[in-house]
Known about the structure:
By secondary structure, the chain is α+β, with helices and mostly antiparallel strands. It has two domains: 1-28; 55-181 and 188-199, Jelly Rolls (Sandwich), CATH 2.60.120. Helix content is 16%, strand content 35%. It has two helices and ten strands. The strands form three sheets. The chain has a five-stranded antiparallel beta sheet with strand order 1-2-9-4-7, with no helix packed on it. It has a three-stranded antiparallel beta sheet with strand order 8-3-10, with no helix packed on it. The relative contact order is 0.22.
Amino acid sequence: MTSSRNVVARRRTQVLGSLGVVAAAAAVAGLGTFGTFTDSTTPLSTEVATGTVSIDVSQRGATVPVTTAGFVPGDSMTRAVDLVNDGTSPLGRVSLASTATAASVLTSDATQGLQLSVRSCSAAWTQGGTASAPTYTCSGTTSTLYSGRAVMDAPLAGVASLQPGGVDHLVFSLTLPGTAGDSFQGKSATLGLTFTGVQRDGTAR
């Protein structure tokens, strides 16, 4: 009998001891839920304002757009425009695209068809000639930004309008080569010239 009581007593002691270990573990786990110490710094003020990408074209002197008729091989038409960066952000690229609204041999023939040239002057162009057939002279330095077929899409390298407030004094000329043959008679073409400014690449600020 004594032996049986001792066995029961030991089992009770073991059970109570196990419960005590469980309770202690729960109490330790509970310490992770309560009593968390934190600290933080005062806010660092950071403000980000985005820039604007904007370019515009204003005509100088003779009317733009222009319509002309009776073109023959060797004829040309020239007009002046100012390209202005009126935004607040520098540009990574300025390009010019010329598109034809309808297919014609005047624009599909890359060699004998209409040719386009775009020149820049470091000063404003001086207009001469007549209102219907103006001519332009440059009192500063000239550079050719593009020369080739009339339908095109190309970047304009080194233009002042890459920077906010920059202005490019441009003249564009359309010419029908003197070598154009009889197949160019009685044809017409309408061209749309579009300048596009693209933002510079993003950098760490």
